[in-house]
Amino acid sequence: MRVALMVTCINDALYPRTGQAVVRLLRRLGVDVDFPESQTCCAQPMVNTGYLDEAVPVVRNFVDSFAGYDGCWRVSGSPPSPALAALPSLRARL
User: Fold this and answer.
1) In angstroms, rounded to a whole number, what is the distance separating the alpha carbons of residues 62 and 47?
2) Count of the separate structural domains present in the chain
3) Any idea which GO molecular function terms this record carries (predicted)?
4) Which residue range(s) make up the domain with 37?
5) Within a 10 A sphere around the Cβ of 70, how many other Cβ atoms?
6) Tens digits of per-residue pLDDT, 6-57?
7) Angle (nearest 5°) at CA 22 between 7 and 26
């Protein structure tokens, strides 16, 4: 199984050991972990504040960056991406 790992900006800045522990655990379980270099923001700040039009290019990049994997793991307590949760509202803009 090949998965992409997204370590959020908050987690990366404040709790980097959590992301490292997730990588160790997944690898111990035999999972091939990758970090897409093109990943950037998950669009949570834009979606949470109602800036859906501004979120569109960020969501496109998010989807493109994590396509082609068997799964996407995110080190966060939030949903995989608030932008993906908002997809019904964003679909017309994509």
Assistant:
1) 13
2) 1
3) oxidoreductase activity
4) 2-90
5) 10
6) 888 888 888 889 989 999 999 999 999 998 989 888 888 888 898 988 888 9
7) 120
